Amino acid sequence: MTKDCQKRAGREIRRVPGYLAIVAGKDEYLVDRDGRACFEKAKKAAGPDAEAEIISGAIIQVADARTIEVQFVDSVKTLSMFGGKRVIWLRNLNWVSDSAQGKSEDVKDSLAEVLHAATEAPAEIFIVISATPHDGRRKDLTSLKANATDFILHASASKSPFGDGGADAADAQLGLAEERFKSLGVKFERGVPETIVGLVGQSTRLVIGECEKLATYVGPGGTVKQGDVHLLVPPFGDGDFFEPIEALAARDLKWALESLDRYFFNEDSSRPLLAALQNRLRLLIQIRTLVDSGDFRVSEAGLAKGQFETASSRHGPTFGSAAKSSANLFSQNPWYINNKVAPAATRFTLAELVDLQLACADCFDASNRGQDESSVRAMFLRALAVKRSA
What we know:
By secondary structure, this protein is of the alpha/beta class. The protein contains 16 helices and nine strands. It has three domains: 10-153, P-loop containing nucleotide triphosphate hydrolases (Rossmann fold); 157-241, Helicase, Ruva Protein, domain 3; 271-385, no CATH class. 53% of the residues lie in helices and 10% in strands. A five-stranded parallel sheet has the order 2-3-4-1-5, sandwiched between helices. Strands 6-7 form a two-stranded parallel ribbon. The protein starts with a helix and ends in a 5-residue tail after the last helix.
């Protein structure tokens, strides 16, 4: 027999599972959602008489991996008593994380045995492996991409939903929030999904959970307002937690004063708020300048698609270094500018924004005299009580 014939024969006699799905990523919610979808798909393909089994792959101690390895391998090798097919879901595998357990050689050895058993399973066995959190530097699972019927790898989330590289993830989470509200039978004001995503960072599970909490608060058929979000949703991780800035940007005096009550109930110093407000104002001044020059057309929905990129190619060098800074509009994430910052430029003239920026400096001086709350309140009242013409 020639070598080519031997190779072909080897491929023909090699056992392969009837179905193999690999789902991995750092977002537990997304991984579990897609893992369950693959599990249901495998059960449907295996037929109504197939046996289904879910094995927890989560380990706490290194020794747990060996126990799960034995359970999984035995399950893969066990054929149905009645000759039917079997579907196995190894769920919540946390062996490929950047943790002490994940880096253990014993765990790596057990993982190698598990993956070998999965790829060598007979055709009667349908397998789903969902792994989270997944360290993107690990190649254990990605090496099986060619063997897998379905291979889903969720990209690592950005630390901030509006940071570099976070736009796609933020868009996906906005879509999930909108779908969840609709499925729960509630309406929402414009900007509510963006506010939720901004507060909870990149946790999809938290986004969904907070949507359900807000829907319960307003009741069936109710409307979720931005004020409701800031009242009920606490900030998580690197979320954007300065509610007064959003109230000021919305030009809502009542909300702004109530948000200042909440802020100063928890904080003594106005300095963190003022620093964040100055950063936002720097961006708004640049946006408003480009609106007045005709380079931007801004509406309550923000900037139209493509405007930011076009203006960046035209004016980017004028604005200075590409290093990320609020002093350079074009160093920011386009999604953040288009959807979260730009709408406020429709509510303030350039003169008003410049006055606010100067007033922030006065409030810093007042903070040195211990007049944090009174000075900030006065600034908000001057800015929002009367709308000034250009």
